[in-house]
Amino acid sequence: MDTSDSYTRFIEPIEDQMIGVIWRVLRDPDESDDALQNALTKIWSKRRAVFSHPNPKALILRICINSAYDSLRRRVKRQRDQQALRERATDQAGKSGVSGATGGSGGDVLIGEELRQQIMDQIASLPRNQAVAALMRLVDRMPYTDIAQALGCSETTARVHVTRGRARLRERLSHLNPTGGR
């Protein structure tokens, strides 16, 4: 199969969806671009398997989601490392008598972004199949048949992954809804 034909047939029709699933996880233009490039590299290196898959669209979107989660995990690790460095610097400054000021503006925007980031971090911390299934179903509203094909399992198993992922997210994020909600 010609490479330009493969691109036109499989990638081009779902480019917007690929970008969309990556963006919903990362919400950062630079990281999203990098994750898309990583996904395209993976798709290219495994192109025979991807394009001969029974549902190449679902597999391509799964590769995109996995690439986004890999980027998200790297970001979380980087943020933890930076936080640890800041805490050490604060401890050192406190011991030496130097005080630092913290503050910010645009509190509502910051709170909304922090909330979204908390939710995405919790999704990323789920077992891989639950994370992929939850993201595909809850965020992208994909049908269970596509989720099952992307995960390489039965539709019933895909439903179980979504249900378990949703339950874990509800449990882990219960502190965000003190009234109990649904």
Main β sheet profile: none
Strand content: under 5%
Mean of all residue-level pLDDT scores: 82
Tell how many strands the DSSP assignment holds: 0
Structural class, by secondary structure, is mainly alpha
Number of spatially distinct domains: 2
Considering DSSP H and I runs of 4 or more, what fraction of the residues is helical?
over 70%
Residue ranges: pLDDT <50 for 5 or more in a row? Answer: 98-105
The secondary-structure element order is HHHHHHHHH
- The name CATH uses for the topology of the largest domain is Rna Polymerase Sigma Factor, Chain: A
Describe it for me?
This protein has 182 residues and is mostly helical. The chain has 2 domains: 1-95, Rna Polymerase Sigma Factor, Chain: A (Orthogonal Bundle), CATH 1.10.1740; 106-182, Arc Repressor Mutant, subunit A. It has 9 helices and no strands.
Offer a concise description of the structure.
This protein is an all-alpha fold.
Question: Which descriptors apply to this entry?
Answer:
182 residues, mainly alpha, Rna Polymerase Sigma Factor, Chain: A, 2 domains, 9 helices
Topology:
Elements: H1 3-11, H2 15-26, H3 29-45, H4 47-51, H5 56-96, H6 107-125, H7 128-139, H8 144-151, H9 155-172
